[in-house]
Amino acid sequence: MTQIPTGAAIPTTGQPYEYQRRTLVEPDWTRFPGWRDVTAAQWESAQWQRVNCVKNIKQLRAVMGDLLDERFYADLEADMARLATMSMLVPPQMLNTMVPDKTPDTESFYADPIRRYMIPVATDRHLDWPSHPHATRDSLHEHDMWVAEGLTHRYPTKVLAELLSTCPQYCGHCTRMDLVGNSTPTVDKLKLTLKPVDRYDAHLAYLKAHPGVRDVVVSGGDVANVPWKQLENYLMGLLSVPTVRDIRLATKALMGLPQHWLQSDVVEGLHRVAITAERRGVNLAVHTHVNHVNSLTPLVAQAARTLIEVGVRDVRNQGVLMRGVNATTEDLLDLCFGLQGEAGILPYYFYMCDMIPNAEHWRVPVWYAQQLQHDMMGYLPGYATPRIVCDVPFVGKRWVHMVSEYDREHGISYWTKNYRTSIEADDTEALSKLYAYYDPIDTLPESGQQWWRKQQEDGAATA
């Protein structure tokens, strides 16, 4: 059985976690051979960042020079050919936060937590159980709940608006790997077919026809990839719907490409949107996605402060809990103190990594997430203590302690819900039945792993 990280060790004296302030630093990008001559002005340019994103092995070699052994590139090539669900796209800003305190070598690059989810390699994966038997490419069934192209009505009063299918960066664990990014040898991606203006008009028409929806999460992809004028028009359209009271902009680019959110046209345009939202009594917030404290730099903090200064009500973080990245008490608390105390970003949620293909090496079992939630309590201010949630298929977000039944041997937890999604209007049992979620199999006792092997063998025999 694979050892689950145990979090901060409990000392015999003192506290299990000792807080030490860590001020933010922009790592020296000139430590990478390919960026030795890059100026500060270039680095702070959103255009330069986008143009110089690393999209393939050849470009990674150009940045890294001779720092990495050939075995790493062979490992990466094997993953891209057989296992990766996302294509490679890493902005310089993100790559610069990998091994931030020294010039990387092969071993330190392999071990880096941000590398582990942004540039996954084949040996990261659990090749005995790369995917759970119940893993699916749209694990949360968001596409099934589309009420218009890109508009998911999953919760009674909330919708998710997917404006586009691209991001400034592609995370290996992306929950929308069936739609977002370029196709890979493993995944032939879905495509949005409508013109953006027609898609957006359909969203507004649905919202006007359904006054019970008050909250819109504007996402994708990443809203940082929507041309600003287009995004501003969409947001002003939302603000014209009197029943919309909350708008949340979802952008990992606040961390991965903070330069975007510091561009003058974006800052000025967001100020116009924020003023309009305030006048109409609408809560406007930005949600970002930071998974490790090393991702926080002065540029990220500057971008977050700028959002608040122009009138955004709050900037919040929704991270993902992942083994090898942040799944220890110390890592989570370090990140939360960096977010809340140094970057002005409110720790909000940590999601358990979703059951998508080839993600078993990242996922943690429910019991372990419950322990992490317990161990985080009492250190952070109450308002800045994040909830760890399990996003249960067909149910939605549930605090990890809300499980109704739990079979630890087989790693099956059962959950209930108190509302119908847009596809369950006529399901009389939707609110009374139990919904299953599954722990990663390699974390189970041997008897549980044997049981799953038998299930898989029996399934193959009857196929």
List the SSEs and their pairings.
Elements lengths: L39 H4 L2 H6 L5 H8 L5 H13 L9 H4 L10 H6 L1 H6 L27 E3 L2 E5 L2 E5 L33 H14 L5 E5 L8 H12 L6 E5 L2 H4 L1 H4 L2 H16 L3 E6 L9 H12 L4 E8 L7 H15 L2 E7 L13 H11 L10 E6 L3 E4 L5 E3 L4 E4 L19 E4 L7 H17 L1
Parallel strand pairs: 3-4, 4-5, 5-6, 6-7, 7-8, 8-9
Antiparallel strand pairs: 1-2, 2-3, 9-10, 11-12, 12-13
Helix pairs in contact: 9-12
As a whole number of angstroms, the C-alpha radius of gyration is 22 Å
Return the CATH architecture of the largest domain: Alpha-Beta Barrel
The CATH topology annotation of the largest domain reads as: TIM Barrel
**Range of helix content:** 25-40%
Number of helices: 16
Distance between the termini: 29 Å
Mean pLDDT equals 96
CATH class of the largest domain: Alpha Beta
Biggest sheet, in brief? 10 strands, mixed
Low-confidence stretches: none
CATH superfamily of the largest domain: Aldolase class I
Total individual domains = 2
SSE topology string: HHHHHHHEEEHEHEHHHEHEHEHEEEEEH
Description:
This protein is 33% helix and 14% strand. It has 463 residues and is α/β, with parallel strands linked by helices. The protein folds into two domains: 29-124, no CATH class; 143-398, TIM Barrel, CATH 3.20.20.70. It has a ten-stranded mixed β-sheet. The protein has a three-stranded antiparallel β-sheet with strand order 11-12-13, with no helix packed on it. Helix 9 runs parallel beside helix 12 (264-279). It is globular. It starts with 39 loop residues before the first helix and ends with a helix. The mean pLDDT is 96. It comes from Krasilnikovia cinnamomea. GO terms for molecular function: 4 iron, 4 sulfur cluster binding. InterPro entries: Aldolase_TIM, Lys_aminomutase/Glu_NH3_mut, rSAM_sf. Keywords: 4Fe-4S, Iron, Iron-sulfur, Metal-binding. This is L-lysine 2,3-aminomutase.
